[in-house]
Design a protein that fits this description.
Length: 194
Amino acid sequence: MIIVFGGAFNPPTIAHKEIYHFIHELVPVDKFIFLPVSKKYSKASLIEDKHRLQMLKILTADLNDAIVSEIETEDEEFLGTYQSLLKIKNQYPHQEVAFVLGADNLNHLDQWINAEKLVSEFKFIIVNRHKKNLDKLIEKKTLLKNHKSHFIILENFHSNISSSLFRETLDPYYVDEGIYHYIMKHDLYRGGKD
């Protein structure tokens, strides 16, 4: 299975690496793709693509089956997850493609660009770190309920670390040492130039 882990990775934290290992324990993985969203996406606090890509390369340096994809950062505009997954599916035509989704994003999945095609054509690995009743949520949303078999729910992921927590504290505990040095060297998240 081709696992696609999308997100802002602003910055990549040790929790992102823990999710990588957590998924490997529970799901067969042929390739694990980190897919950072482009700066063209509407998150105002997103630092430049080149920095997030470089930090992801530092994060994945010792992960054998992991690659960092520039599909979204190379697009002229934000086209949405569906278009990105189609491109990845074309690269791996004989593999099943699954997108990693945090439980908090599941509630809005039916509002994503091309949501109907996205949910009907791809699988989703839901990382449930806040012990939410995701079966109940899926049952409430018609689009999700109609494709219930496309959701693989992974329970009991425990981590309170987030990119926003790092940005608020600049605590080196939350990121790999190499990423912390990169952040300091380039004066990121400290009010300097991004």
